[in-house]
Amino acid sequence: MTSAKKQHNPAAARRAKLEEARRKERARERRSRVITIAASIAVVAGLVAGGGYLMSAADKQDQAEEQAKSSPVRGERSWDELTQNHVQKKVDYPMNPPVGGDHNPVWMNCDADVYTAPVPNENAVHSLEHGAVWVTYNEKAKPADVEKFAERVARTPYSLMSPVKDQDAPLILSAWGKQVAVKSATDTRVAQFFTKYVQGPQTPEPGAACTGGIAR
Predict the structure, then answer these.
(1) Does some domain include residue 79?
(2) What are 164-190's pLDDT values in tens digits?
(3) Looking at the domain assignment, is residue 181 inside a domain?
(4) Same domain, 95 and 53
(5) What is the pTM of this model?
(6) Domain count for the chain
């Protein structure tokens, strides 16, 4: 009985860590919205008169985010019926970066890991199978965007980031079976993609580890 509990504890701890990170991110964004709205209201009528409006506006924004979860990401591409075999060889994926298919038995660590050198596709695909979002960029990406993405990934469990030199667009976000190219780190689709697909419904193995794999 004790052994069974121990086996379930790591997954529960990972889920708790992810939920805590999401809670902090929501709180951070909520505080930012409230401050921004407060500054606008202060110019017009002062903070006291606008206090009720502040919370109402923040609540409406929260509702908008929930709606974004259920809405398709604009410009997103999807792939279905992806294979999930473990292989020890290189895989010729039909998309770049890959979003699924056969992959290495060991995943890339994806516990808010930012890699400054390319990582093996076969290991990164295994991370996507575990519910991670993979941010990739090439030499055409603006340094400011790369920095902002690195900051976001560094505070988001179940995400990783690495350069992919030969990808078609400067900035690409990938999850299992999902991919979108974005114009910048401030593109509104970035937050939606992370909210929707970090341990999202597309995940073949929700709750599987993002640590204990390969780290570079």
Answers:
(1) no
(2) 999 999 999 999 999 999 999 999 999
(3) yes
(4) no
(5) 0.76
(6) 2
